[in-house]
Amino acid sequence: MSTVPSSAQIVVLDHPLVQHKLTRLRQAQTSTAGFRRLTRELSLLMCYEATRDLALEPVRIETPLEAMEGCLLSGKKLCFVSILRAGNGILDGMLDLVPSARVGHIGLFRDHDTLEAIEYYKKLPDDVAERDCILVDPMLATGHSAAAAIARVKDAGVRNIIFVCLIAAPEGIRHLSETHPDVKIVTCAVDRGLDDNGYIRPGIGDAGDRLFGTK
Ligand SMILES: O=P(O)(O)OC[C@H]1O[C@H](OP(=O)(O)OP(=O)(O)O)[C@H](O)[C@@H]1O
Ligand SMILES: O=c1cc[nH]c(=O)[nH]1
Ligand SMILES: [Mg+2]
User: Fold this and answer.
1) What is the stated purpose of this protein (predicted)?
2) Most buried pick, 33, 101, 106, 142, via CB within 10 A?
3) Mean of the pLDDT values across residues 85-102?
4) How many angstroms is it from 100 CA to the middle of ligand 1?
5) How many structural domains does the chain have?
6) For 138-161, what is each residue's pLDDT tens digit?
């Protein structure tokens, strides 16, 4: 069984609400509508954690009663990058929390035989190099898709990257921490490992198919 390297930068959300919703999401009988709703809710909670270190700046404001020094997010804006297609299920909840974020898309699918990531689309904001990026995809399995998407974002000049997923396999965490040791992973669970077809066990099955009802 693959283990998680101790050097991996990983945050696992052990909050009871997260674990409850994740268990509902895993259940085979959860409907497409339920799966979407739970993914959106979990994404909001993951976004809360992934944005924990955003920079703040002091600002003088007036409450109805007196002046005070508050704090607002500093000018540097965020970019979310969705790894198509299942990443779009996560994107919705992230945008609920940070509606002003810019959005990039990278289209990747896994070759079913080799499990390598094949790119078919890429569109990032022109000024992405000036932004912090949060990459989103429900599943970190072999880690090939996440590593390829992160490489694309780094090619565009981005320095600060966080990867957010619902479920990570130890194999994927290992691959990401070897290829991109600077990237923090935020996830709701680290599962047992991959099966012979590269699916995460116990997992949630095929996230894209369950989100979009394609199987
Ligand atoms: O870590 P990996 O082994 O690369 O696997 C994870 C990838 O597999 C799934 O996408 P899939 O290729 O099924 O495409 P889809 O989102 O279009 O369903 C998932 O959404 C990840 O992108
Ligand atoms: O378990 C897995 C692995 C890759 N992609 C998925 O959607 N699910
Ligand atoms: Mg899929």
Assistant:
1) Catalyzes the conversion of uracil and 5-phospho-alpha-D-ribose 1-diphosphate (PRPP) to UMP and diphosphate.
2) 106
3) 95
4) 27
5) 1
6) 999 999 999 999 999 999 999 999
Please report, for the domain that includes residue 148, its CATH number.
Answer: 3.40.50.2020
Instruction: Please state the rounded mean pLDDT for residues 34-50.
Output: 97
Give the Cα separation of 94 and 43 in Å (integer): 6
| Cα 126 to middle of ligand 2, angstroms | 31
Q: Has residue 117 been placed in a domain?
A: yes
- Overall pTM surpassing 0.90 (yes/no): yes
In a domain, 211, yes or no: no
5 within a domain of the structure (yes/no): no
Residues 6+ apart with CB under 8 A from 1: 170, 192, 193
Q: What ipTM describes this predicted complex?
A: 0.97
Structure tokens at 185: 């992973």
DSSP string, 46-92: HHHHHTTT--EEEEEEE-SS-EEEEEEE-SPPEEEEEEETTHHHHHH
Domain that holds residue 61: 10-206
Question: Looking at ligand 1, which atom is closest to the CA of residue 169?
Answer: 1
- What is the pLDDT at residue 1? 57
